[in-house]
Amino acid sequence: SSSVGDVLSEQSVKELPMVNRNALDLVKVMSGVIMADDTIFNANASSFAGVSASGVNIQRDGVMVNDVRYPAGINAATRVNPDLVGEFRMILAPVDAEAGRGNAQIQILTKSGTNKYHGNVVWNVQNSAIDPNTWEQNRTRSAPPWRNLHQYSASIGGPIIKNKTFFFVLFDGQVNKIRTDMNLLTLTPCAAKGVYRFYDNW
Fold this sequence. Notes:
Elements: E1 4-9, H1 10-15, E2 33-34, E3 47-48, E4 51-52, E5 56-60, E6 63-64, E7 85-93, E8 104-110, E9 118-127, H2 135-139, E10 146-161, E11 165-179, H3 189-192
Parallel strand pairs: 5-8
Antiparallel strand pairs: 1-7, 2-3, 3-4, 5-6, 7-8, 9-10, 10-11
């Protein structure tokens, strides 16, 4: 194959730190990838070996799982929990015909059970009480927006019939609460009645 890419094993996916518990964040550690600050609304600024990230195809067990709402490229319809990943493979360029569409491709192989029972329980908490303030908020002496994020998952896998049939089950939950200050326009009493004047006293 003439394709160039990287493969991360299940063990590497477990050991690499991920703030948001999303396996797609691992793309940032792969060679040949340049990520923009805002990947949702500015996908063209991110590139895979010089090609826009908006043309990246994401596959999970051979099925396309791209979120097509925004052309972000690195955004699946559901969050890919790292406990679900058995292998993480990224093909930069060129993508072989057997891999399907896309200028580049992210292939995720999910876990399956083994002859031994293995399980995992994770509770990830992110809270604005320990977040730093931004420069602009320090300048205006305002507090950061309040947020409280809880991500929790439990998984277990093992044999049903040894050496023949296996199972793997994962439960993944998220509770995300956010509160932000909004500066809204308030109509003058005259404008609230539907009378709009562009010059005083006219």
